[in-house]
Specification:
This protein is globular. Strand 5, helix 4 and strand 6 form a beta-alpha-beta unit. By secondary structure, it is of the alpha/beta class. 49% of the residues are buried. The chain has 2 domains: 198 residues, Rossmann fold; 156 residues, Glycogen Phosphorylase B (Rossmann fold), CATH 3.40.50. The strands form 2 sheets. It has a 7-stranded parallel sheet, with helices on both faces. The C terminus is likely disordered. Helix content is 36%, strand content 16%.
């Protein structure tokens, strides 16, 4: 299939947490013989902070962040078998959401791929005049980065023909064990950009835990935290490039996952960091959210904490031997069940069973629960 994909960025993870998700899915779809063109705007300084050059497994088209640039790439995408509009491109999202439907061939597919479904759904719930609401039933398929049955049910209430979660996963060629790096030596590391529905949870799970453990060293990576008050034992690293994620995950005693508030509320939304950390063999401590057992077994493959006090308690009781054991177990589980090769096979199966709007075909019952 020829797939045209409109997203935030494939080549830069700068203010773009979905980058490794896009890369894993698209690289493995390409490995299965599909031809993907990824259209991304020159916006938010992402092109100045690239993590990777243009890959050989996808064609990357960077367009100017203006209407003329958008219209040019829309014309370029005409004729694709599948046209994908991802959420959160960042510019001209409303225009693209309508335009990809107009691009769809009579025998082709138009897909909305939501990499932040809780936020999209909350926005539509709160605003009956939201311009995306009437478009949802016109898409052949909604795919989501996560969310499980709660997100599926919510999208169907808005008229989605089908909604299928395609969860985050591991690309073992990108995220894997490496030698520890002294730059990231410490007891607990957290990677995440400063976002409105994440900040309070970072205060609770990370900064509060740091305050409870003044004798331990905490590492904070991500954009936007420079002016945030922090305990003295927190080292702020700024943006950590993808090339350094393996060392960041591998070096500290443990790493922390903190879900954004909306994703924690819906559950079944493991962040990219969960799989990156497991792939590197890291000992992961995660905030509590419904559905974690689908991906990692608490106590054996991951440690779960309900608040900052429990994070501190987990960290104080963690030995280096226990951390290595948990990291090894997590890596085995993720490699066996949750790689992007698994996800690409799932997507290919979905596309093979989805007909264009009006053709009458539907995804078989139960497919939305398939991993």
């Amino acid at each position: 299939m020829r797939i045209a994909f409109f997203g935030s960025s494939l080549v830069s993870a700068y203010w773009n947490g979905a980058a490794t998700y896009y890369r894993g899915i698209i690289r493995n779809l390409a490995g299965r013989g599909h031809r993907i063109t990824f259209y991304e705007p020159d916006a938010f300084e992402r092109q100045q902070h690239r993590d990777i050059p243009d890959p050989d497994w996808a064609k990357v088209v960077v367009y100017p962040a203006d209407q003329q640039g958008v219209e040019r790439v829309l014309d370029d995408a005409r004729g694709a078998d599948v046209v994908v509009k991802a959420s959160g491109v960042g510019i001209f999202d409303e225009l693209l959401e309508q335009a990809v439907l107009d691009l769809r061939r009579p025998d082709g597919l138009a897909i909305f791929w939501d990499v932040d479904a809780p936020a999209t759904l909350d926005r539509m719930e709160s605003d009956p005049r939201d311009r995306f609401r009437p478009l949802v039933p016109r898409y052949d398929l909604v795919l989501t980065y996560g969310g499980g049955d709660p997100v599926v049910r919510a999208y169907r209430r808005f008229g989605a023909r089908e909604c299928v979660p395609v969860y985050n996963a591991l690309d073992p060629s990108t995220h894997h064990p490496v030698e520890p790096d002294p730059r990231f030596a410490g007891d607990l590391g957290f990677l995440g950009n400063r976002l409105p529905d994440r900040e309070a949870r970072v205060e609770e799970f990370f900064l509060k835990a740091a305050g409870r453990c003044p004798d331990r060293r905490f590492l904070l990576g991500g954009n936007g935290w420079a002016d945030k008050p922090m305990p003295a034992n927190v080292q702020y690293l700024g943006h950590v490039y993808t090339r350094d994620h393996n060392a960041f995950n591998r070096t500290p005693l443990a790493v922390l996952n903190i879900s954004r508030e909306s994703m924690a509320r819906y559950g079944f939304s493991p962040a990219t960091r969960v799989f990156e950390a497991a792939g590197a063999g890291a000992c992961l401590i995660t905030d509590a959210w419904e559905g974690i057992e689908m991906f990692l077994e608490p106590e054996r493959e991951v440690l779960v904490a309900a608040d900052g006090d429990e994070v501190a308690e987990r960290l104080r009781g963690l030995t280096a031997e226990d951390a290595r054991r948990i990291g090894r177990a997590a890596k085995r589980r993720i490699l066996a069940e949750h790689t992007y090769a698994h996800r690409a096979a799932q997507v290919e199966s979905i596309l093979g069973t989805t007909a264009p709007a009006g053709a009458g075909a539907r995804i078989p019952a139960g497919m939305e629960a398939h991993l």
